[in-house]
Request: fold
Amino acid sequence: MQANIGELGGRCFVDSAPVLDKAWAKKSGLGWVGKNANLITPGTGSFYFIAELIVDLELDYDGAIRDYCGTCTKCLDACPTQAITEPYVVDGSKCISYFTIELKDQLIPQSVAGQFGSWVFGCDICQDVCPWNRFSKATQEPQFQPRPELNQLSVSDWQEITHEVFQELFRQSPLKRTGYEGLKRNIQFVTGHGQPQS
Ligand code: SF4
Ligand code: SF4
Reply:
C-alpha cells in the first residue's frame, strides 16, 4: 500500500489480536456468516484465516453480501454436542473446540463423554459438512502441511505420549495452547480411559 499510495500508518493482524475480524469481514463483503457461525466465501468455503490491515486512511469499501445458507441445516444436524443451539448461534461452552482447547485445568464434564469422536484438539465437523467447503482447496503453505511423524503415531503412542515427546512434536505448534496436561486429558477422555486429576 505504501508503494502505491504513499506514506500511511497501520498494523496487520492474523488471529494475533482481539480484532472482531469476522464481523468486519462480513461487513466488507468477504463472505456471509453461516448457521455454523463461520465466515463463508462463495467459491472458497470457510477453511481460511481472516487477515486484516488497519490503516489510518479512508478507503473505498464493498458492502455485505447475501446469506446463501438457505434451507440447509447440515451443520446443526452434524454437531455432536448440539453446540449450535439454533441457526447462527454457537454455544461456545458446549463446543468440542472449547473443551479441548480453551478449558484449562479442569476435567471435561462426563455429560459429553462419548460425543467427541476422535477430536482431541479442536473440531471441524460443522465446516467439514458444509456444502460450500466443496470449493475449498488444500493449502500449499509448507508450514501447514501435516507433520509426517504425527501420522505414524498409533493410538497407544498417543495415550502414552510423554512430556518430552510432546515438546518435540509440537514445538511452535498451536497445540501449545492446550499444553501437555491438557492434551493428555483430552486423549484420555476420547479414548475412554478416564481423565487425570487436575
Ligand atoms: S466445532 Fe464441532 S462441536 Fe463446535 S459447533 Fe462445530 S461441530 Fe459443534
Ligand atoms: S452447513 Fe449449511 S447451514 Fe451450515 S453453514 Fe454450511 S450452508 Fe449454512
Residues 2-55 form one domain. The radius of gyration is 20 Å. Residues 34-36, 69, 72-75, 129-132 surround iron/sulfur cluster (ligand 2) (CB under 6 Å). The chain has a mean pLDDT of 93.
